[in-house]
Structures are given as C-alpha cells and as structure tokens.
Design goal:
The protein has one domain. The protein has 14 helices and 2 strands, in the order ααααααααααααααββ. The protein has a two-stranded antiparallel sheet. Helix 9 packs antiparallel against helix 12.
Length: 278
C-alpha cells in the first residue's frame, strides 16, 4: 500500500499547511504495525518469552534464594533485551520491506522530504517499547515482594531501555536502507543483535582484564546492564556509575546521526552502498 493510498496526498507537506508529513507516515506505519498485526505478533511472543523467563527465574529463586532485587534486575534485563530486539527487527523491515513490495517508489514520489519519511517510520518502529515495558511491570512488582525495587527498576529501565531501543531501531533502519530485500535486512539485523547480546552472557571471568573491561564499557548492551545491576542490586548512586551510560548514549547519537544526516536523504528505490547503486 503506497502513501497515496493511505493518506490524503495533497495534505502531505514538508513545509506549509496541513499535518506534518512525518505524522502522516507515522499514522500509516502504526496502522500497518498494530492493525495489520505485525507488532501484535511480536508483543505476544515477547509476553510469552518474558512469562517463561519469569517462571523459570521464580522457581530457581526458591532453590537458590536469589534476593528480590536480583530477580527484579534479571527480569528487567530480559525485558530490555527483547524490547530492543523488537525495535531492531521492526526498523529492519521499514525500508527494505517497502522496496521488496514495490511500494517504495510511490512513497518517495510524495511531496515530502526523505527525512520526514524516515522520522515517521522510526517513531513507529519504537512504538512497541512502551507497551513492552508496561507488560514487564507485573513481574517486577511480583519479584520485588512488596518492596519498592520495582519503582526504581521501572524508572531506570525506562531510561536505559529507551536509549538502547531508539539506537537499535535506528540501526535496523540503516540496515534496511542498504538492503535490497527484507530477507537480507532481517538476517543482518539478527547477526548484529547476536554480536551485541552474546558478550552480555559471558561469565564474569571472561570480562576481567583490560580488554574485557574495555569491551564491557564499549558494548552498549553490556554497559547498560552493568549500570542497572549496580544501581538496582547494589544500591550504588548515579554519581558513581553515570559513565557507564556513555556507551548507550554515544551509540544512540552516532546511529541517529548517520541515519538522519547521511542515510535518510540518500534513500533510493534500489539498494545502495555509499554513493553507488547496488
């Protein structure tokens, strides 16, 4: 479905009267994601995975006496990891999906800038994240066992999770812009996710030494997890560990900078690399 088929084209403006073009693109994308069912399927899968993880964690806690704060952190970490993956794959589908369906040309011919098209699609790609965080709340409240750990977890989880989800959704869109098919963009997005995620599961011994600590600080997922663990589990202060937020923040700025400053204005009907058509 092209933009002309889903919105009133004469009202699309990058400047001037009428609704901003990005909001029209956003409306169209939200309709396709939520009414079309793609986002709902992802959220259902997320809910099942989060529920299974919480169930297994709860059973283990009875045997190993894991403290409530640790349970809250583990659940929140899982919610963020799955939530940002949803943003990544949704972003990876945004442009290559249009290209594969043959609707990208009509979209690019609408009287608006490519940046506004990308902005609308980007905002739609991150729309599942607030719901994902909300769905994690019952588990956080349950594992806090009447304490207030869930409140701090929601606060810091929303902040760190938003940094990571925005960054990975933008990264997914970059992959989508440079991919000639949806299959390619999805495979690349999955490889990227695995490359970032697997190091967060390494044993503590593998993260010691200068190289291990440096990699831990540079990997935005691992840095975010470390910050949350220290603040939520060990009751450390923001003043002590705010530098661990540098990697997620820098990753976000770099990703969105490349996306909106360099890649967005250069979107083409065919996939491209640099300034050459693929």
């Amino acid at each position: 479905m092209s933009l002309e088929q889903s919105v009133d084209v004469p009202r699309v403006r990058s400047r001037g009267e009428g609704r901003p073009a990005w909001s029209l693109v956003l409306s169209r994308e939200l309709f396709e994601l939520w009414v079309g069912g793609k986002a709902i399927v992802l959220v259902i899968i997320y809910s099942i995975l989060l529920g299974v993880t919480a169930f297994v964690t709860s059973n283990n806690s009875e045997l190993e006496l894991i403290p409530p704060k640790e349970l809250v952190f583990m659940t929140l970490s899982t919610a963020i990891a799955i939530g940002l993956f949803i943003g990544l794959v949704t972003g990876a589908d945004s442009i290559s999906g249009e290209r594969e369906r043959g609707t990208l040309e009509a979209l690019l011919l609408t009287p608006t800038s490519r940046r506004q098209i990308v902005l609308g699609k980007f905002l739609a790609a991150v729309s599942p994240w607030p719901l994902a965080l909300a769905l994690a709340y019952p588990y956080l409240a349950l594992f806090s066992q009447g304490g207030q750990a869930w409140a701090r977890a929601l606060l810091w989880g929303a902040f760190v999770g938003s940094l990571l989800t925005l960054a990975f959704a933008g990264l997914g869109m970059l992959v989508s812009i440079w991919s000639d098919s949806n299959k390619t963009s999805m495979v690349v997005a999955l490889v990227i996710y695995i490359a970032f995620y697997i190091p967060t599961q390494w044993a503590g011994a593998a993260q010691t030494g200068v190289t291990g600590r440096l990699f831990k600080r540079v990997n935005p997922m691992e840095a975010g997890n470390h910050f949350l663990e220290k603040v939520l589990v060990n009751n450390r202060t923001l003043a002590e560990f705010w530098l661990w937020l540098a990697a997620p923040a820098v990753f976000l700025v770099l990703t969105l900078g490349v996306l909106f400053v360099y890649a967005a204005p250069r979107i083409r009907v065919e996939a491209w690399t640099g300034d050459k058509r693929a």
